[in-house]
Amino acid sequence: MDLLHALSLGDLLREHRRSNPLQIACVSGDERFTYRELDDRVNRLSHTFLAAGVGRGDRILWLGQNSHRLLEGLLAAAKLGAIFSPLNWRWSAEELAFALSDAMPTAVLWQQDEIGEQARKARALTKADALWIQHDDPGPEGYEARLTDAEPGDPALEVDPGLPVLALYTGAFGGHPHASLLGHDALLLQGLVVSKVQDVGRESIYLNSGPLFHVATFMTTMATFVWGGTNVFTPRVEAETLCRLIDAERCTGAFVVGPTLQQMVEANADGRYDLSSLRSFRAFPAWDSMTTPDGSPWGRRPGGYGQTELMGLATLSCLGMDATGSHGRPSPLAQVRIVDPEGVEVSAGESGEIVVRGPTVMLGYWRRDALEARRRAGDWHHTGDLGRREEDGSITFIGPAARLIKSAAENIYPVEVERCIAAHPAVAECAVIGKPDPEWGQRVAAIVVLRDGVEADAEAIVEHCRAHIASYKKPREVAFVESLPKRGFAVDHDALDRRFGGGGYPGAAAG
Amino acid sequence: MDLLHALSLGDLLREHRRSNPLQIACVSGDERFTYRELDDRVNRLSHTFLAAGVGRGDRILWLGQNSHRLLEGLLAAAKLGAIFSPLNWRWSAEELAFALSDAMPTAVLWQQDEIGEQARKARALTKADALWIQHDDPGPEGYEARLTDAEPGDPALEVDPGLPVLALYTGAFGGHPHASLLGHDALLLQGLVVSKVQDVGRESIYLNSGPLFHVATFMTTMATFVWGGTNVFTPRVEAETLCRLIDAERCTGAFVVGPTLQQMVEANADGRYDLSSLRSFRAFPAWDSMTTPDGSPWGRRPGGYGQTELMGLATLSCLGMDATGSHGRPSPLAQVRIVDPEGVEVSAGESGEIVVRGPTVMLGYWRRDALEARRRAGDWHHTGDLGRREEDGSITFIGPAARLIKSAAENIYPVEVERCIAAHPAVAECAVIGKPDPEWGQRVAAIVVLRDGVEADAEAIVEHCRAHIASYKKPREVAFVESLPKRGFAVDHDALDRRFGGGGYPGAAAG
Q1: Which residues of A touch B392 (CB under 8 A)?
Q2: SS3 A384
Q3: Fewest CB within 10 angstroms: A128, A167, A339, B2, which?
Q4: What is the DSSP track for A37-67?
Q5: How far away is chain B from the Cα of A380, in angstroms, using its nearest Cα?
Q6: What digits encode the pLDDT tens for the residues B436-472?
Q7: What is the C-alpha separation between B126 and B112, in angstroms, rounded?
C-alpha cells in the first residue's frame, strides 16, 4: 500500500481532528459535536466493532433514519477497512431481511423509533449472527453506553483508499436490489467535485434532509465533510422541522425537492422562521422571498446524469448552460462514451448506452459476479442507460436501455421510440416491443393507449415517428389497448411480449 | 492497470475533445485552438515524439517561454507516459546544460526568440543525443511543419495516472537543482482543489502570465484545463502586453504580483484597456478601480503553504480566515503533521518539520535516490520546512528547517530564533548557529548586525528572546558584526560556523 500518497476517509477525519478541532462537525437534535469529539466517538465505535470481530471487508449495516450516528458508522467502517451500508428504512420487513441475508453483516446499527417493528421482524427472518446495537436505546446496552464503555484512541490501522467503504443498495426492475460498492476515493473525490459546483466549503452548514440511503444527499454530505463544514441531520422530511432547523442552525444548504417546498412555505406562512441563510435555487415567489438565491453553478442549473454505481453524478447540467444536450457535460472525473451493444462508440447524434470510466466508478457489486462482469465489459462501466452525445459535445440522457431491438443491422432502443410516440398529443401511454421477423430479425411494434376522447390511427403514429426519429426506428405495426400491464410503476414488457408475440431480442438484457 | 477507474491527463484531453469540442482551449499570440484542435495537435506531436523513440518514462524538455506549445508538450508526454520538464529560461547556458545532462532527454523543444543563444550554448555543452525541435522556427524543420507532417490520430496507449508526467526543477541552497516528479493524479487533483478555492471553471479565461517552470502558475493552468476553460499564454511578464491581452481576451484571471500591478496601472493610465473582466484581489485604489473584486475564497485570502514537491499548495490561507496560524489549514487532499527529527508528532504550539501525505505529493526526485529516501522517511514527505500547529488546528509556516541545533534534549531550529531576534527594533540582520558544548551538546549563539545609529547589547537581545520564545531557545552568547557572509541571497551559515566555532549539529542536514 502506497502510504505516501494515501488519503482514506479515516485519514481525512484524523486531519480534521488536527486542523479543525473546534469546528462543529455535526448536529443532530440537541447534540452537536466538534471534529475532535466526532473523531473521539468514531474511535470508540471502531473499537466496539473491532471487539465484535469486524475486520477488513466486513459489512456494517445501518437500519435507521438520518442521524449523526450514521456518519459515525461510516467513518468507523472507514477506519477499519470495513464496508458501511445504510438500508432504506421504508423497506418492509421482508425487504430488509433480504438485504440482511445478502449483506451478511458482522454488525448492525438499528433504530427503535418509527421502524423498530420492521427491524425486529427482519432480524427474526434471518439467521444473521451479528452484533445488533440499537442506536436510540438510552440504556446500558445502547449505542451511547457502548461508546462510553469502549476503548478510546485511534485504532490506527492502515486502510487503502482504493478499498470499498460504502455499499448502497440500488433497485433492480423486477428483481432483488443489489449493492454498489463505493471506494474511499470515490466518496472523497466526488465530494470535491460537488463542493466546487455547489459552492460548499468549510463555512457550509448542510441540512441532511434527503435520505442517506440514496446517493443524492450523500454527495453533498461528503462535500461538506471534505472541507470540514457542518452536517446537520434530521431523521425524516417534515416541513416544519426543516424550517426550525434552518433557522436555528443557520443552514446554508439542504436537500429539499418538489412538494416539500410548498409545505415549508405554508409552515412558515407567518414568517416565524428565518430561512434567509438557505441558498436555494429559484422555485416560486413565496419560497424565493424567504431564501437567498444560490449563485453557484448548481444553483443556476442543478442536476445532471448519474447513478448510484457512479457515486452520483457523471455529467453536470451546469456545464451545459449553452448546450444542446439536456444533461450538460461530463464531470472532470468522468470519461463518458456512448456505445453500441458491441461497445463501439457511436457518432454524435446517435443513441447508445452510456458508459463511464474514472475514479468515482463503483468497485463492483456485492456478490453479483455475473452482473458485475457484464457491467464492466471492456473496462468501461456500462450504466444500462441510454444517452446521446450532441454535436456540441453535451450529453442527453434518454432513459433505461434495458431492452434492445435488433432490426437488420440497426440497434433500436424501445425507450427512445416510446419517448417519441408518447409526445404525440393523442397518446396517453405506450410501449414498444420487438417481434421476430424472418427477413429483418426483429421488427418494431408499438402498443398504444390513447387519451380519452381523442382519436388517432396507426398511420398517424407511424408518421409522427418518421418525422421525429430515424425511419428505421418507426413501428411497423401499432396496436391500441385500453391500458398497459405494469410491474410496480414500470410497464411490464414481458407481459406485452407474451400477449403480442414479442421476442427474438439479441443477447441477454442488461441488468 | 485499473482502466475502469483511470483518468490520466491524456484521458481528460480526449474527454474534452468529445464534450467540449468547440470550446477555445488555448490562445497564444494570434493563434487560438479549440479542444478538438488541441487534441489533434497533441496527437500529431505524440507521433512526432514516438517516431523519435520517446517511450514510457522518457523525458521531453521545454527550453522556452510560456506558449500553448508548452501545454501541447505536456499533453503529448501524458499520452505517451513520458515526462515533460519545462526548464527555467532565465538560467545561464551552464545551468541549462546541467539540467540537460541530468534529465537525459529524448526530445527537446527549444526557442530561438530571446534565449536562442543560451539554448545553443547549452546544447553544445552536453552530448545529449536527443531530437531538438525549435518551436518558433517557421521553416520546414520547425515545430509547425513537423506537426503537419506527422501521423494524425490518437496514439491510444494506456497510461497509468499514477505515473509521473511533469518534472519541475527546484532550487537547492548551495547545490544543483533537482527535479520533482509529479504524477497525472497530482496535477489533476490539485487542479480540482485550486479550481474550488479560486472559483475557476469552464467559463474561466486564465492568462498564464507567471512562468510555467514554477508550480504557482501551473496550478491554475491545470484548474482551467480540468474544467475545460481557456488558457491564454504570453511569453513573459510585460505590463502593457498583459493589459492588451486581458482586454482582448476578456481574461478572468491572471498571475500578477507586486510591482507588475503598478506597471499595469501606469500602462493603462489613460484607460485605453478595459481590464474589468479580471477578477483580482484588492491592492490599491487605481488597480482596484480597473478590475473586478475577486469574491472567491482565494480572493478574500490568497496563498498558503506549499512547495514544488507537493504540486503547490498543501495548506490554504482561505481556510483560516478565523485562525491563529498564518498559513490557514490543510487542503482536503493533504494530511499534514508537524514532527520532531525522529518523525514523532510534536504538540500544538511547538515547532517542527512540516511533513505531508496525500495524492498531490511528488512521486520522487529524478535521479536523487539518497535525497528522495530522506524526504520520504516513514512514508511521509519531509518538506524540509519548519512549521507549527496552533491550538485552533491552523498552520504557521516558519521557514526552512535545514539546520537544527540540539541543546540537551531540546530541538532548536535556528530559523525560529533568527525570526525572533530580527523582530527586535535595533536589529538589521542576524544569524543563529550552534556551538559544541561539553555539558549540553550544543549551545545557541547569535550573530547580529545592528541598524545604523541604534544601540543594543547582548543582554537586550537575550531578554527579547526570553520574552517571545521558549527560554531554552534563547542565545547563550551574542556577537555583533558589521555584516553577515552570504551565498546568493541566503546567509552562509557554514562560513559563520567556521568563523565563530559552530559545530556539533545532530545528524545530516536535510536536503
Answers
A1: 21-22
A2: strand
A3: B2
A4: HHHHHHHHHHHHHHHTT--TT-EEEEESSS-
A5: 6
A6: 998 888 999 999 999 999 999 999 999 999 988 888 8
A7: 18
